[in-house]
Amino acid sequence: MPAKSSLNLSGNRFAVAYRLSDSLEAAWARAQDICFEQTVEFPEELLPAGEIRDHLVGRVEALEELEPGQVEVVVSYAVEIVGADLTQLLNVVFGNISLKPGVRLERLELPESLLQRYRGPRFGREGLRDWLGASGRPLLATALKPVGLTSHELAEQAYQFALGGIDIIKDDHGLTDQPFAPFRERVERCAEAVRRANRETGGRSIYVANVTAPGEEALERALLAKAAGAGGLLVCPGLTGFDTMRRLAEDDRIALPVMSHPAFLGSWVTSPTSGISHHALFGQIMRLAGADAVIYPNWGGRFSFSRDECRQIAEGCEAPMGHLKPAFPTPAGGMTPERIPEMSVFYGQDAIFLIGGGLHRDGPDLAQNSRRLVDLLLQYR
Amino acid sequence: MPAKSSLNLSGNRFAVAYRLSDSLEAAWARAQDICFEQTVEFPEELLPAGEIRDHLVGRVEALEELEPGQVEVVVSYAVEIVGADLTQLLNVVFGNISLKPGVRLERLELPESLLQRYRGPRFGREGLRDWLGASGRPLLATALKPVGLTSHELAEQAYQFALGGIDIIKDDHGLTDQPFAPFRERVERCAEAVRRANRETGGRSIYVANVTAPGEEALERALLAKAAGAGGLLVCPGLTGFDTMRRLAEDDRIALPVMSHPAFLGSWVTSPTSGISHHALFGQIMRLAGADAVIYPNWGGRFSFSRDECRQIAEGCEAPMGHLKPAFPTPAGGMTPERIPEMSVFYGQDAIFLIGGGLHRDGPDLAQNSRRLVDLLLQYR
Predict the structure, then answer these.
(1) Locate the Ribulose bisphosphate carboxylase large subunit C-terminal domain: which residues (chains A, B) (predicted)?
(2) How far is B2 from chain A (nearest CA, A)?
């Protein structure tokens, strides 16, 4: 959902738009409640006059009935209350009120005074295109799977996909550090396989390693992946927390493109009246947390996102956010080569089409299946 | 929702019960889909015979119509597929299917071969009672607030609460590292204030520091809190990721009781047909992630959890999970002293009653308000 209007807030406040499932009158009361719940969490009548009441308590900046029973309110908060912590920004924006049904976070309006604390996508669309040497067309991605294959088998897949010209060859997000294909061995072999294919084709495909892991392990695995020559990182922020992804994206020792995967994020977007909008979650918050490419289930696949929700994600991936670069929407989830024409029209060039299992359906020669997909893409770009 | 029946799985498989909003026939098909989606994520017809198909793909173990259109299925997964990572356990249990509405995670059945990788609550109910010297009654907790007060003012509050005999005096979860009360200063002063009160009363109250923070900061703050003499940690796993809480709970350098706060977790439980059950999220998963006390909004307060949902949480906090200790349900969210009799009957002795703003309503003498609350509690235990 694009911004209805931009507020003229001073640089020391930021704003959040919420959709309330309320009458106008009830929405007014609920908006007041949000102002207290998300900040001081203290009975209004007991709050002393002064700075806390005047500045730290949230402030209702706008209130508009969208349709009967649906009201959009915009609440502003003091920048000091969130400091430089992404965890605390998410807390103020939607911490406690996530527990109150009928409130949906629609979008963020963040001033540069707050945005400057975030690097955002390190590469962004332009940077990733440069890295891959791919201009004037959507990018192609695929996934190494299924879990249970050996590192050797996964590397062979990676080699074939790169030989066939797929830009981004990523681990399935279910590949972590299992005995069948331990992390280090898998990542070294797959990175090497893609390098080997690149040497043969002159291409610039990258292998993207899944570094979703507990605590410090994620950082250690990212450093290992970097050392092994991986060309990017896959992170599931629903599993690691958003800030873990941000930290990996901002670490200059790593300096690799980051793809976000939507695992364990679904409940945020399954209700139209609660949770977080697709625009804010898969667009704005993912960019704050450093994603260069945002994977999500495309409409018409195995999942249930609608065309309109996918459009909102694509918009959120490029909506103005100060110095934060735009990210690539990366529709996935049961896509097949047959969907390429339709996706090309819908998303245009600035997207990554992620086709996993679908690339296996045309027979065992994965390089040839990949070449066909590339040809199809170039035909419809 | 308590386990309907215990399955006799071999030690190398664990099970998950899901509630599907489907007819029996559709549920059967959906259960098959879950078996693939959560593991190999690969077209069934392309999967080679052998170990992957026979062992790694999920397996439907039970299917039962609860009422028309509501079916419970139990799916088992191979322990090897999750290894020792909590992130990967959550991924297999509910990663991709969180994106498919109409599937609700109801409960986990984990064998000791998997549970042995988790420490769980370090103190548990008995350990926390020993730590606090409190037996034969529910425990009392309160929160330092509002954000915006100085460290000095917050410490004065902490002193008064401890003087009045409140067992656990925790930071409001909105207190992080803001300029009004920087983390280190606040924690040192509040911990000292509670020690001072304990010396005067002979009591054993603890100050619990909020260490919810980005990445490594959470660990650094926890170590600082330990050094400053805090008696526990408050963590919002919705903001940090569950594994960050687990790591803080399992770190022997810290070895402090952990309270979990529900901020940014609401969307998991706002729909009765999607997301995660209260039992699994606030009971089982919180214990896997090391919480000794689980804060959640009690029925009848500012939030919307029902009596039955609160009962499910209390059950999840003590349901058998191998060697994992039971945690304290910690109902909160707009509770007042008047609710004590009702809560005492509902929860019995094994709960922590968290009363925040409500303790300020009886006038500015917080020590006296606290003493009255303690008296009330002892009267109704």
Answers:
(1) 128-360
(2) 22
